[in-house]
Amino acid sequence: MTTSTMSGPAPSPLSEPAVSRGRLAALLAGWLPDQRWFAGRDHKITNLSVVAATELAPGCFHLLVRVEHRGEEGPAHYQLLLGAGTHVPPRLRGHVIGEVEGPTGDTLLVYDAVHDPRAAALLLDRVRSGGTTGNLRFESFPRTGVPSGLTPRVLDVEQSNTSIVYGDRLILKLFRRVQPGINPDLEVPTVLARHGYAKGLAPTAWFHTCAPFFATLGVVQPYLRGATDGWALARASALERGDFVTEARDLGRATAALHVALAEAFPVAPAPADHTVRLADAMTSRLRHAASLVPALRAYVPGLSSAYAEFALAGSDLPLQRIHGDLHLGQVLRAGGDWHIVDFEGEPAKPLTERRGDHSPVGDVAGMLRSFDYAAHIDGSPRPEWAEQTSAAFCGGYAEAGRFDPRRTAVVLRAHEADRAVYEVVYEAGHRPDWITVPMTAVARLSRTS
User: Fold this and answer.
1) Fewer Cβ atoms within 10 Å of its own Cβ: the N or the C terminal residue of the chain?
2) Residues 164, 29: one domain?
């Protein structure tokens, strides 16, 4: 256990007087929209309340908060790890959220405690010990063993969750946005490992809420030391106009092998007769909504709608199965000459039932092709030929190891790529306007009559 960051025992900021609770809620409502992992940044928070609080140690709290947004149909829940004390060390001052009045009248500084080595070590301690603490239940697989004394560090990457690495041996992913049920990033790697899939990182431990509902909160997995993520490798290759064909072909094989393993580990069902019609309708609806948000899309609505209509008419004989659900270059790691596919959570903004549902594996293929396109275009010096060669190699590798050839599903693949590109336009418009030309260029290409 590392040295406490507090200057003596700290009263709980969640205790009476009630004004402190109200002040804490106000602080969080102002702080949350600035966090990368907060999904409601585009909508004003209308109400925030603490629905569950567990004191892990004096001055260290796990919170589950309920957030309501204007324009959203229902509330969202987020998990927070907060610290509170009369003083914080210099390394944590950049993570201070604000001040509340403690039960004894002292002014307490509240901060995001995932960046506090004491709190991060304490959380892994609870995982190692197991059992129940307040509203939290800590579990681990038999014989896996979580070691002690590992130094924590938070990964400084842009993602929708928070990852803490412990001694370059373990990684704990905290699911910031929480939905009732088991998270697929716990479910899928666990099932794959039981079925002998060798390229996954099987969870060793996890924790979940006991109240007010059951939900996976975090997963501990082995940390793949010396690995490089696919985005960094692909970007370096594209910038240098290098040859990424071999790596892309290997990645295509790895993706196909994953899909085969998923089809063997989970039930597979034939697509209903009207599946492509309903999916094309959903794509068209998303397109129209996106065009209402981003006027630049409106000129391409006819072309993309035509692509979706062609998809509905052509149909698809591919069965529906569990897939990755959010596959791109940032979700793959290269180590020892092999690709490892990670992060099976799916898109956090989607309902958990949808993320755990069955879908066409073409969706994952389209996600990776869109990622290659991003790698080739984001620096203002487009390299479309690099993206074309890499995408072709990926699809070729997939055909070698998979149960279908993506190159022979052109109409289906085009519709999925277009749907993904439309989503990207809306995302970039709201979060990274400087990048919007990348998906807009793809939209223009995919909207042309084939």
Assistant:
1) C
2) no
Convert the pLDDT of each residue in 214-234 to its tens digit.
999 999 999 999 999 999 999
- The residue assigned the tokens 């993570």 is 95
Token pair of 268, please?
């597979």
pTM for the whole structure: 0.91
**The residue to which tokens 């903004």 are assigned:** 349
Strands across the sheet containing 338-341: 228-229, 332-335, 338-341
* Residue 218 included in any domain: yes
pLDDT at 105: 82
Residues 6+ apart with CB under 8 A from 317: 271
Which residues of the chain register pLDDT less than 50?
A: 1-11, 15-19
Asked whether residue 437 is domain-assigned, the answer is: yes
Chain mean position to CA 94: 24
Distance of CA 392 to the CA centre of its chain: 27
Helices (H) and strands (E) in the chain, counts: 12, 16
What does DSSP assign to residue 435? G
Please tell me the predicted confidence (pLDDT) of residue 150: 93
Q: Which helix (H) or strand (E) holds 179?
A: none
Domain's final residue, options 192, 222, 252: 222
- The Cα 121–Cα 136 span in angstroms is 16
**Cα separations in angstroms, 184 against 176, 209, 354, 367, 401:** 14, 16, 11, 18, 24
| Pair 35, 55: CB distance under 8 Å | no
**Which of 115, 149, 164 marks a domain boundary?**
115
Question: Using an 8 Å Cβ cutoff, are 127 and 146 in contact?
Answer: yes
Domain enclosing residue 378, as ranges: 228-447
- Asked if 288 and 178 sit in the same domain, the reply is no
